[in-house]
Specification:
The chain is α+β, with helices and mostly antiparallel strands. It is about 20% helix and about 20% strand. It has two domains: about 220 residues, Jelly Rolls (Sandwich); about 30 residues, no CATH class. The chain contains seven helices and nine strands. The model has no long low-confidence stretch (mean pLDDT about 95).
């Protein structure tokens, strides 16, 4: 927590078990068949990206609720946090550096401010400076502004071994690195937002309803079927989960008898 407060990021070394790592690699490999780069400066011209992964296979349901990662995010955003987006980032040989940016740059709040979200990057392969490890500007989450579009900034590579997870404040200045090798750098971007922030991806509409119904309760809540502060996001003063999935639910605190 001290590292997150001062530096704006931290690395959870080797927390993803080998079996899950292999499962995710295999699932992603099947999804990437036929996928081509977006071919723009921000998403990359040699980078494969797949969005809305929760709708694309059961393996991905294990990512948002991982017992070694979610508690860290909950400790800074509260257990009422939500999934903002779950996507893959496969940086290929020859990719150029992504521009340094802050993921909350479009949110109209004076900086520095309380975290609106926390991002995590799961390393499915080793992340090195040479193959495009995420670039970070330590302490930049405390700046009173976002980085200037297209400007160069001193940054460091978030090098880590496969199975590790990088966690960072949504105000931290960062960007994907350049891949100067012949290998691919593959990561999973599992990003969370505070319960009072609108997610990047609308999980409630992006994922088939029957798929969400089969999710465990905690994952349903992360997808937006819970409530914030006992009232925000209710349906007739009940949580969406209790209405649509017939789960036991209590009334909002100040209405309870």
């Amino acid at each position: 927590m001290a590292e997150l407060a001062t530096d704006g990021y931290m690395t959870l070394e080797g927390v993803i078990e080998p079996a899950l790592l292999a499962e995710l690699r295999g699932a992603l490999g099947k999804l990437e068949a036929g996928v081509v780069p977006a071919d723009n400066d921000f998403e990359g011209r040699s980078t494969l990206r797949i969005y809305n992964l929760l709708a694309k296979g059961s393996a991905w349901a294990k990512v948002p609720v991982h017992e070694k990662v979610l508690p860290v995010v909950e400790s800074v955003l509260s257990p009422e946090c939500l999934i903002s987006t779950l996507s893959s980032v496969n940086i290929g040989p020859g990719e150029t550096p992504q521009r340094i940016h802050a993921d909350d740059g479009l949110i109209p709040l004076a900086k520095p401010h309380l975290a609106t979200g926390y991002n995590t990057m799961w390393a499915l392969t080793d992340f090195t400076e040479a193959n495009g490890a995420t670039r970070l500007v330590p302490g930049s989450h405390l700046a009173d502004h976002s980085p200037e579009h297209g400007k160069s900034y001193d940054s460091i590579p978030a090098e880590m071994e496969a199975g590790s997870v990088l966690v960072w404040h949504s105000s931290l200045w960062h960007g994907g690195g350049a891949n100067k090798t012949g290998e691919r750098r593959i990561g999973i971007a599992m990003n969370y937002c505070a319960g009072w922030v609108r997610p990047l991806e609308n999980q409630m509409l992006s994922i088939p309803f029957d798929t969400i119904r089969a999710f465990p309760p905690r994952l349903q809540e992360l997808c937006g079927f819970g409530v914030y502060r006992g009232i925000y996001g209710t349906v007739d003063l009940r949580s969406p989960a209790s209405v649509f999935f017939e789960r036991a639910d209590s009334r909002v605190p100040w209405l309870a008898v």
